[in-house]
Amino acid sequence: MLNNNSPKHYLLFFFLILSSSVCAQNRASGRVVDEKSSKELTKVDIFINNSKTPALTTTSGSFIVQSDSIIHQLKFSRKSYTTETLDITPENAENIFVQLSQAKVSDIQEIVLQSGKTKYKNKKENPAYAIMQKVWAQKRNNGLEKFDTYSFKEYEKTQFDLNNLDSAFMKKKIFNKLDFIFDYADSTASGRLGLPIFLNEAVYENFGKNRPDKDSKRTLVAQKTSGFQDNQVITVSAKNLYRDINIYDNTLNYFDIGFQSPVGTDGFSTYDYSLMDTITIRGEKAFQIRYQPKRKDILAFQGNLYIDTDTYAVLGATLKSTQKINVNFVNSVYTQVEYDNPDETTFLPKKLITEFEMSPFSKKKGAKSIIAKRSVDYSEYEFNKPLDPKVFKRTEEEYEDKFTNKDDAYWTKARPDTLSKAEQGVYNMLDQLQQTPKFNRMVKLFETLGSRYYNAFKGIDIGPIFSIYGRNEVEGDRIRLGARTYFGLNDTWRAQFYTAYGFKDQQFKYGVEARYMFNKLNRFMIGAGTTRDIVQLGGQLTSGDGVTPQSSSSSTFFARGENISLSSVNKTSVFAAIEPWKNFQIRVDGVMQSIKSAIPEKFNLMYYKDGRLRQTVNDSHVTISLIAKPGAKFSQTGIDRYQARNLAPTIVLRYTRGIEGLFNADFNYDKLQFMLYKPFLIGSMGKLVVNFEAGKNFSTVPLALQNIIPANLSYGLVPNTFSQLNYYEFVTDAYTTLQLEHHFNGKILSYIPLIKKLKFREVAFIRGAYGTLSDASKAINVEGFRYSAPSEHIYYEYGFGIENIGIGNLRIFRVDFNWRGNYLDRPDISKFGVKAGFQVGF
Hints:
8% helix, mainly beta, 45 strands, 4 domains, DUF5686, Immunoglobulin-like, disordered N terminus, twelve-stranded mixed β-sheet
């Protein structure tokens, strides 16, 4: 099953114009400072080998240069400073520390590194081990926790560049009438071109307090993004690639995948450490410790640590992935961190630079790729100063589009360093692109695939395009057409409808809804709608009422067995929702519906009411839902929001009250439900995804209103269902389910010769369900004797999967192998099954 998340498609858009291979160039990185003041220097020309043309002119104290050929020498030149020339080897190519002086000085000695790798009988003989022990003993926490109040600013710059371009690439037909973009490209050290394609600058103000009560707020006060209409999705998606890291943690989060930290207390189980030298970092003496993973085919880094010789604080670190990094679309990861250490127990972030090299297909050297770089500068720290309580309150002004618009004078002052020529040009280039019809057609195609809707007229979208055709037992071949209003990502209202026709039952179905949001601050909104359709009930346990959700008719082309348990549902809904606190929603739904079997001769929903036999359930109920998503990030402020993927949990508490007599409803009943979804990083062992659900009907209701343990009869992947169950196999008054899925990220398969070259990743899962069904609930249904709950034993199924199947960097296919654990004596069950589908992600 393909998961269409539009922001992912925005990021993959740039991949579509690249070659099917990946760049893997030689690189060198480091810092250039004034010898006397230790201040970082800009406008330094860096020459590679014997080149007479600088490969880079620095715009900050840090630099990264790349070359297709081996870098064996770097020359640093700046007006009024003495030129320095350094020999470069694979061992010292990272975190080079260069001091330029205004007077003639001898060659810099601090970067002379120990060559080779010393072998020790045990880690205790390694001098680096003794140093790291003291680092662990004096492990520091983020200094913000120790102050009563604090505030600071962040300047963030995110940039994407097409990398390793050449003349053949620029002559491709796709660039016909778009070739002006290469006027904005800059030569790289390889002699080819690097073309900026996206640039976002942002300034944040951070406020926090720890005592007497705890609170914090991070406000986006300025943002400037290159080109692209409706670019908030692109911007948030680009930023969501990155996570803020704490080098002292045992596990570092990249792409929601755990990498072992070289400063973690169990680092020696993953890395080999070597004490290389003692150098000076920002005026402080530091041990330089080089580390590298014991095995190259695991998720780990290599690089340098810089440890203060007196306090054993981490002053800085570089983290570079190995060449065998097993992450989708990613060829390499490079991070550089710098910390200030105000006292013996805390640190404060100073600078964070993270760079990803990404390619859609392969990792072959010399191919085209995207360099995605994010740098964050932390400044203007202030502590223990009184803060007005108003700074922690959200205001409507912050949610207006114009709130973050600032003039050029503001940005000139806000930037720690001036933009390079290429960075300045990206704004002009993408603005010019938007005036080009061909580019707009490409964007429209791309947006259609990502959103599943085609923009037919101004404000009108047709779709979803992937739901046009379906098939099920009741309708046979089914055609579905729909449309919605759409003026932009931040629309405060939306109306949509669909109509469907089944060629077997020769019946029209429909759905229509409208929603309106009054306030972007607390997201107060209302909605109403009505639908008449054929649906598969019991597909989810903790399912929201919604207004007119997309039809869930069984339209699967490939499935085991024949699905006859479909229902005909007429439903009218209204709702109101509000977010009194960020990421916490209170929602009230009112629903009136009638439900009957869509195939009475094969699937019986008849029940007894007051001694009379009935075939249609009339139901009116009110549902109150509390939905919390702490830590979740969203791309926009409109009525529809995209939730960026991260490790944020989802917690739902829902109460439903059925009201007999309201609109001829048949039953009074009470239902309580709870759901928790949360991914966890488990160190170097991968990621565990937990989904727990529990609920109870406190009244006797017929089958159409009961809790059905959800089944998946298709051969596709459907989350939070049970693959080896049949529809309506387990019916419950009260239920508890737990689904555990662990992604090992290839840790096990990497030990198997030959297999490890395929870069497959293993997944293990187990699913369990327990519930009860009263005799009264069985008796109310005509065929109640056919239904039971997993009360005798906990029903369980288990299995394993292979993910990351594909070619090169394009590895989005997954296959699961499922076994049924018990209740094996039932007729028409499936003891073993295979599911497969697409899983787009890192």
